[in-house]
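User: Please fill in residues for this 222-position structure.
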């Protein structure tokens, strides 16, 4: 194998295709695997016979009850001079009851009004027994809650009257995050195509560098 030929075959175009394809596979493989796992529904989470919710699980179904949000999220753009744009809300972290305690649900900003309505209906249900009528479908993946969100989650439960020991007994704080698994599968396939095309072009250029074009050279012509 000729090292010089390898470097010449790996031109900018080939390198970009391989890097983009590899990055797309890296970003989507985890969610792709989760998408093929059996999904747990929000009804399952309330079933006393369920095995509980764990990080990495596939969640799919209509949300039954929501107990308001314990944190909100905003995004902004930071500029090179150190300044930044105004904050733009990008969703809330709601509290969802389960048979073992509670789990977080990260909403998109466009879903906030629906979940706020479902929150009101949930509190009405707790006082009158009238079941919520608002439907909200979610498909996503369970993650571990991290950073300050863990503190906000625990503080919110303390406001409900739970002690520290009771909160610890609920297990590791988790959150459900929305995932478009259809988009994940499409991006994964595109990543494979980019990577395969990059490797094909690399192989073709490498053979050219080592073996030449196969056409007669000027000095070989009569």
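Assistant: Residues filled in for all 222 positions:
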């Amino acid at each position: 194998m000729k090292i010089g030929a390898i470097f010449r075959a790996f031109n900018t175009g080939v390198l970009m295709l391989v890097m983009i394809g590899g990055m797309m596979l890296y970003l989507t493989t985890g969610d792709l695997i989760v998408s093929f796992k059996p999904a747990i529904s929000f009804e399952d989470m309330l079933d006393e016979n369920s095995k509980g919710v764990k990080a990495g699980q596939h969640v799919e179904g209509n949300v039954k009850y929501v107990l308001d949000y314990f944190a909100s999220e905003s995004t902004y753009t930071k500029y090179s001079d150190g300044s930044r744009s105004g904050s733009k809300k990008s969703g809330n972290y709601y509290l969802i009851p389960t048979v073992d305690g509670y789990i977080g649900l990260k909403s998109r900003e466009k879903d906030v009004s629906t979940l706020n309505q479902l929150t009101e209906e949930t509190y009405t249900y707790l006082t009158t027994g009238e079941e919520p009528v608002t439907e909200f479908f979610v498909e996503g993946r369970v993650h571990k809650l991290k950073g300050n969100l863990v503190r906000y989650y625990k503080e919110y439960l303390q406001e409900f009257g739970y002690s520290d020991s009771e909160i610890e007994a609920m297990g590791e704080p988790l959150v459900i995050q929305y995932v478009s698994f259809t988009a994940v599968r499409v991006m994964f396939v595109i990543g494979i195509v980019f990577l395969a095309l990059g490797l094909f072009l690399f192989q073709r250029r490498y053979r050219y560098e080592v073996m030449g074009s196969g056409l007669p050279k000027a000095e070989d012509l009569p």
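For context: The first helix runs from residue 3 to 9.
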